[in-house]
Input
Amino acid sequence: MKIDEARNYHKIDAVIVGAGLAGLRAALEVAKSGLSASVISKVYPTRSHSGGAQGGIAAALANVGEDSPQLHMFDTIKGSDYLADQDIIELFVNEAIKTVYEFEHMGVPFSRTEDGRINQRDFGGHSSPRACFAQDVTGHVLLHTLYEQCLKHNVLFFNEFQVLSLLIENDVARGLVAWDIRQGGLHIFHARAVLLATGGYGRAWKVTSNAHANTGDGVGLVLEAGLPLEDMEFVQFHPTGLYKHGILLSEAARGEGAYIINDQGERFMKKYAAAKMELAPRDIVSRSEQTEINEGRGIGGKDYVYLDLRHLGKEKILQRLPQIYDLALNYLKVDAIKDAVPIQPTAHYSMGGIPANAHTEVIRDAKGTVVRGLYTAGEASCLSLHGANRLGCNSLQDAATFGRIAGIRMGEFCRENAYNDLPAEPLAKAQAKIDRLWQAPGKEKHADIREELQVNMTKYMGVFRCESEMLKMKAIIKELQERYRRVAVDDHGAAFNLDLIEALELENLLSFSEVIVEGALARKESRGAHFRTDFPKRDDGQWLKHTLAWRRDGKIVLDFGKVVVIYPQYQPQERKY
Amino acid sequence: MAKIDISVKILRYLPGKDEKPRWQLFQFAIEDEATILDVLNEIHWQHDGTLSYRRSCRSSICGSCAMKVNGRNVLACETPIHRFGTKLKIEPLSGFSIIKDLVVDLEPFFAKLKRIKPYLIVDKPLPDKEFIQSTAELQAIGESTLCILCAACSAACPSSWPNQDYLGPAALLKAYRFVFDSRDDGSDERLEIINDKNGVWRCHTIFNCMEACPKKIKITDYLSRLKVKVVENSI
Amino acid sequence: MNKDFKQTSRSGSLAWLLQRISAVILFILLMLHFVTYHFLGKGKPVNYHWVMSKVGNWWFPLLQFMFLITALYHGLNGLWSVLEDYTTSKTWRLVWYSLLLTVGVVLLFVGTLTIIKLYTLKIA
Output
């Protein structure tokens, strides 16, 4: 396939990969400043998984109870198990309030207090009602509102395009190459600035709350470009995944007062977090749940416990949590008004990702050297705002706030910098990926390899980890990577080739999963969402540092970066809830 | 949890190869709790890799997987097979051109959405904090903001089938959502756009859209309120 | 190939409003019809003679004429809105529109003649 220069070459100031909250917020900012912004997304923007977020967006508005950015800051630091960078959090909690008011002015239908202000509810790990919400569809309305604003400001959308390679040379980003999913064919996007807002990587697990699209493509591309990833071993398991499906039941349920109970009908969280109970941070609740299950107190001795909403009453459930009610009814045939809902921990949020500084500029080493023109925001990034464990409602806020900051910074960068030349043979790498899958000699099926990866990641890289199991996982990934070389796709057509896309995504899954395992093996301590049964204590002396990982000559190479601690009063201390 | 035998007929279409869409039959065993999406994944991953369809979130919020199953527009991800029994007939949404298999061309759908100015228009100065909006004012638009743009409604609308120029229920519902938002100042320009033979007036209250909506939004009711508003505005 | 919303710049609001108004009038007329013909008879059988005994009243032609106009308008306008949905070519639309208009005019003429005939028949 030859590139059609006229049709398949696009010169655009800011190219944004990903149409979730972070990508759209950045695009809006760039477009409003008068520059050309285009969003490349493998799904239609309103299909992005930001829309799956249910509970709320955190900001210390103090509309319902006493609150302040300082309190938000402390909660976030403690929630992160002290791994988060405090300069980033400080910026975040102050900008958060502005972000929410901006959203309201764009038309987000927030639920209201009696006097007509934005309503707020309790959320895990937050010491004050801080979650601004729209029923239990907060992410959905934020995403749609942002999309609407992007339409208003004429952001250019390339929907259903899969990015196959980043064009980076001499540490300067020059654009990227993407595959037109709908019609087939490669396109070159020549840009002054590129933003990676490709979301999380939860699809590496079998039991996951993540969408089919969340295959960590941006993370995989960065690794492939020879750049590092940060803190990849930290993956949050959400305590209330719908049993067997892994589909998210929002923490909003517990924010509204729902219980979690074991086989004996006991609210077991009193043993693990007596003060906060069900509203302890997610890493702690998930671990407690898994402990109950492992010790035989799952329902009927099986691998699930109950989320109990019954005492909330019909009216509150249908008014405040209608989506949760529908999900339980549709998928498990459980009427949450009358019966408790079976739940289990589910892979949910990627704390790790593409390392970046407070300006969302991607960095390429522990010293913080910047890759010029390359930016990242949202779940794909690791700034690090969430450290070892994210608090609920901080993710929508993270995506929106740092999406805006990315948009502003990219705008400035575009005004000061000309287009850099494309590398020679820009299409080569992307073309080779496609050719190999279409001409592969082997008979391996991508579906089988993906299934094995996901099942084993859930088994060995879940809530509890230990060296022997992780070594097994490492070996499995090596074997699967070997098998991937022989993957052939059935579909050789140009139009909407799902087979091809899934095979391409699998390469990313296999690539970053290895980094997750290597990072987790190296980190001989337990912190936040990363819990090792062989090293059950946090070790600040050795491990109060960020993991950076590169792929060099087929091997994963690690280095470590400093955690920014600027406030003496927020020094690491024991984490009790 | 037990396995049951099912037979699935899927309308296949490969541009350039098939002259027109054709039915293909698959027969296999699957868990009785499976959803339509599980069935499609099983076929795509195990039986025929060339089958294409859209899917993403699996939890009925992204709107990717609207399709026609045994004559009804549903979201594949949230629809258990036991709703239809062991004989399934799966085809793409009606009223759109097919790109491949179950994937239809949604460009016209989103282009229509853009035509009604689907964003809040504010002329007044912005407050320092939030606009004050009462719960009653919010409730007027609350349900309409649940729309996931899956296109099941537009694909079910008999007024849309013969006339591709019609705005269709989804775009009109979005118009309703902003016209009735207490914060919006743009209802005059929006009402002018939809006050057209191909706008709100091609809705003949057939109620198919409402029946097809996976979010159970009372679309027809809202469109009727929109018509009254147009008339009030032009008097 | 992408079909978008094509604005016609022709509002349908008047047609819609008149359709609602004519429906309400039709409903009222129907009620009047029932009351005058079926309930005011007080047990008398509703037959030819009874009906003919009413046609000379002043309200008879008025009622019938309003019936005629609203029913014709309501029916033909309804038919037109359906036909307009399913015919996109300008020529065919013109053909249908002319046909419906002709039918309307003819029926109006015939109907009016009949009402006058009945009214004057009694007088004579």
Notes: The CA atoms of residues 38 and 45 of chain C lie 9 Å apart. Chains C and A do not touch (no CB pair under 8 Å).
